[in-house]
Amino acid sequence: MSRAERKQSPPPSPITSLPEDVVVDILARLPICDYPRVSLVSKRFRSLVSSPEIYARRRSSPGCTEHCLYVFLYNYANRVNRLYTLRRSNSSSRLVLIPGLPPAIPPYGSFAAVGSRIYVFDGVNSSYTIDCTSHTVQHLPRMPVPLSNTVADVVGGRIYVVGYHDADPKSKAMLEFNTETQTWKGPMTVPGMQIRDGCVVAMAGKMYIRDFEKSFVYDPEESKWETDEVVSSKCWGESACVVDDVLFFYDWSDNELRAYDPERKCWQVVKGLDDLLAEIRGVACCWLQTVSYGGRLVLLYGKGEFLYITKEVCCAEVSLEIRQGGQIWGKVYQWCDDHALIAGNFIIRKSLDMKNKIIFFFFFFSVFFMELSRGQNNRRIEVNVGAVTDVGTTYSEVAMLCVNLSLADFYSSRPQFQTRLVVNVGDSRKDVVGAAAAALELIKNKQVKAILGPWTSMQAHFLIEIGQKTQVPVVSYSATSPFLTSLRSPYFLRATYEDSSQVNAIKSIIKLFGWREVVPVYIDNTFGEGIMPRLTDALQEINVRIPYRSVIALNATDDEISVELLNMMNNPTRVFIVHMYSPLASRFFIKAKEIGLMRPGYVWILTNGVTDDLSEISKMGIEAMEGVLGVKTYIQKSKELDKFRSRWRKRIPRNELSVYGLWAYDATTALAIAIEEAGTHNLTFSNADPRRNVSELDALGLSQYGPKLLKTLSQVQFKGLAGDFRFIKKQLQPSVFEIVNFLGTSERSIGFWTEKNGLVKKIDQQPRSSESALSTWKDHLKRIIWPGDADSVPKGWEIPTNGKKLRIGVPKRTGYTDLVKVTRDPITNSTVITGFCIDFFEAVIRELPYDVSYEFIPFEKPNGKAAGNYNDLVHQVFLGRYDAVVGDTTILANRSSYVDFTFPFIKSGVGLIVSMDDLVKRGQFSFFKPLSLKLWLTSLGFFFIIGFTVWVVEHRVNPDFQGPKRYQASTIFWFAFSTMVFAPRERVFSFGARCLVISWYFIVLVLTQSYTASLASLLTTQQLNPTITSMSRLLERGERVGYQRTSFIFGKLIETGFSPSNLVPFDTSEECDELLRNGTKKGGISGAFLEIPYLRLFLGQYCNTYKMVEEPFNVDGFGFVFPIGSPLVADVSRAILKVAESPEATRLERAWFKKKEESCPDPDTSPDPNPYVTSRQLGLDSFRFLFKVVFFICIVNLGYFIFCFLMKTGGRNMWGELKKTDDGSYINQVEKCPCSSKQQPPNDTNNQAANPDENREFSYLTKEVCCAEVLLEIRKGGQIWGKVYQWCDDHALIAGNFIIRKSLDVVL
What we know:
It comes from Brassica rapa subsp. trilocularis. Glutamate-gated receptor that probably acts as a non-selective cation channel. May be involved in light-signal transduction and calcium homeostasis via the regulation of calcium influx into cells. This is F-box domain-containing protein. It is a multi-pass membrane protein. It is a single chain. The chain is an alpha+beta fold. Helix content is about 30%, strand content about 25%. The chain has 37 helices and 60 strands. The strands form 16 sheets. Strands 32-31-33-34-35-41-42-43 form an eight-stranded mixed beta sheet, sandwiched between helices. Strands 27-26-28-29-30-40 form a six-stranded parallel beta sheet, with helices on both faces. The chain is elongated, with a radius of gyration of 58 Å.
């Protein structure tokens, strides 16, 4: 460092060299009454003594107790009740008015002190607390019942308030207020008494109340009232107090101070105060009240000329001592009779002894003077900044402590900086207008260059407008509503995360578990509503439905919360996203557990609005939240953060450090950096023209420093306690959220959500190379305990057993009632609904894993007729009039655009049915119809070809084919046609001829059998064929067709091209049958279009008359209808699959369809005797191959014969050789049976005379009968051998023309 720089640098201050903790500890141990003088030392001291950190340190520092006396005085002059505190000095004591409190403190209210807070109760107007450390007011929850003329005191940390209910003297009640949970209990009954103002004390764990006659005692442990005769014996009242569990009061009539010891249960007079009481009574005392103050007894009394006119209030402090025998003695400790505490006509309403811890350090005075001298010579430039916060609240206290710690840490590590931030606190009083007023005051009086805060988004909305008007940057560390971004103010910076930044994490959780419906539960203000637009969009991206929203008022009572919770219980959705303030969330979940919404099956997801501020939730509230999931702001661990947390726990153990405190710390650091970089040039406001008539806001002027500070502030980047600090689009941008699960009284981390990888178990977990389609939630999150200590993932919805029944619409049909039938019982006048669809639905409901209450409601008019078609019925679900539709409702694309269908429980389609006619005409020539003409001619030709070929091959060697010419010609025809019945008399000897005849026999066999079968079918059965074969034929011919009334088929036919005039509706099967029988000539139809289930029922009645010829339209089938997004769709669809795969589906089919189809056999099991296909004649094509084979054999035989014949004759005299017998053939060597030799057929006498040998050979006349006897022998192997035993060939047995008919062997 250069010499010039050393000269410019100010000398180090002794107080600066001290650690910051030591300075804070010193200031915290000073009496509060010395703080005004300490604030005059420097601006830094003034900032410290006004910061909440000092008061937090005072409460946590060890040491003796500083007692502060607070007195409520009622001024008769202006009829106002105000709060004063006793300020003491070495020379005098006085009552000092506490400023900034509500001017209308109830004169007839009741007061109680707990810790450092005074509780004020006025059931008619309002109840609130006064924080004696900061003198700020916080409103309490409303009383369950309004009470008037109340009295209150504290027993065991709980405040008991007794008063009149409904301003009725006979109606009294008592309420209990828990100061820890800030909740009311009661009302409780009170015995008959007259309530007197202030006549109540708490002693020995019991509460004593005095009316005009008796003293009543309430024991909280036993919740019992009783009377105490000993206490009632003295008329103590509003002037009484309790010191060390002993009751004291001034007895005006006897001018004595009396005491009651509850252990000894007796009254006594306090000794040693006779002179004091005599002097007080001698100065025209108007009234006297006893007060407990630091273990001593203080007598406050009013001095005046008349009885009820007080000129001044004085006091005397008495120390008490219990001597031997239990006698109580008093001694005057201090008496201010020579000067008054306060002058005026007052009366004391209540006096309260408050305690503050303090230790005096002599070392402080040296520090005081060193800091005073430093303040006079400090050259550093101080820049005023504002902090608008709800002073007196725990969260505000934590935030302001972090602001002060941030400045201390920042400047201690950067002593070379030339600027110093001076934080000026403005109390927003937990009110929107109060925040705006505080900001205006800071800008007007302090000319702050920037504003930190405010706490809530509603308050920030006004401050943003003020900052925009005055060019003062507003940096909020807790206003998270996305609505603030829509203001598009350049002077608003958000040093926190916007609420909508967490919706992707919430969306990932819901998508991971597959929940289809979610109900947002949020607070009814800007904070709660701000997240809804982005949350709704995110859920729509994954097709998650929001059936309704649950909105909770900020000041909702327990009864109002219970009503909303009951409404949530009575709805089926069980997944809730809770976005509200922590105190309200605590009450909300306590009530939810009481009502039963924390049992298994429920899912609760908290936003970081709750999880980031758990210190505001009571222990009971945390326990009620067991099993709840939460999205929490992730704060990255660092050494600096660990050190800061350690310092915090040591210095401020009573307050828990929250993430908002860390953001306040970082925001203050960013503001200090930005101001140092912006410099200190032109730290002024431009004033408005005084000659112009402008508003107070315009009169503030414009900050000349604001634009420069805004620029540097927007560019600030550093590593803060909460992570990387950098403004992107005027706000911090998160990339990681922590997912927590509440268990017992704590939370545990189960995973993280990152912008890059989504849900992961560990923050450093690497994503998989390829995401498995079979991954489960356990791959992304750790083990989760769900509400009710459940391990299984809740479905996300259920039908509440105590909720309303499902209203299920049912179509009213006229025909085809086997599917759905609606009737009315004439006796009970109740609706009876039956049918296949109803039975199937009930079977599906039985398969669901939970109970579903429902009722069927027919879709009909009052007169019993259908209220519309099926489109109208489905539309009722979209309108919300029905919760579902059960019936024969077809799944169509246009319907699925506004409702959801389940899986089809029965397949469907649209079929075309037409009449059947017998197309075969029978007559005298019907026997020709089985074969085609071509086949008849071919068969006839082959008969001649076969006969001729066999004759050619056989006639030279076979006697059967020899003879005269005409005989041989007739033999050819005879042999050919006799093969038709397999009865030719002529034998065939040659191999080729035999092959040919065998092949021809096979063809003849096939032909005759086919002919027989075809002719039998033609003559004995009907050949039924449809009159129309397709829908296109109907369109071409312009035929009239029928369709089901109220069906979608009408629209389909119009789209196809049918004219509406050609479309005829029908309702029942009988109407359809009549229309088809009449035909178009008689006003009927040519065909009818029905869906497949109806078609099955129709053909079950008329299967022999009509046929389905085409299925022109394909549809998915019948399904059950539910609203879009209904979670029932998935469960019912699964149940449909279970029923369809079970025997129950088969039973239902048989019960409703088979009884109609019994007359029409199933084509799969029993083929239809009247086939649909048209019969045709047998043609040549069916036998072409066989004919070719036979023809080939003919060619081979003829060719072989011609070849051999030419080789033998050499081509000479072929005709003559052809007529001769072939003596050289091998067939002549075969021995033939005589009966097989051919006799000469009868012929003319000329031929017989010319050829006597031939005539003898071919004669049919027998000359004689001969015989031969043969012996038979069976040899080895079973072979039979024969041997001629006797042969009579040389002589005949008998001569004559005989033929043997039968030979018999007779045994005699």
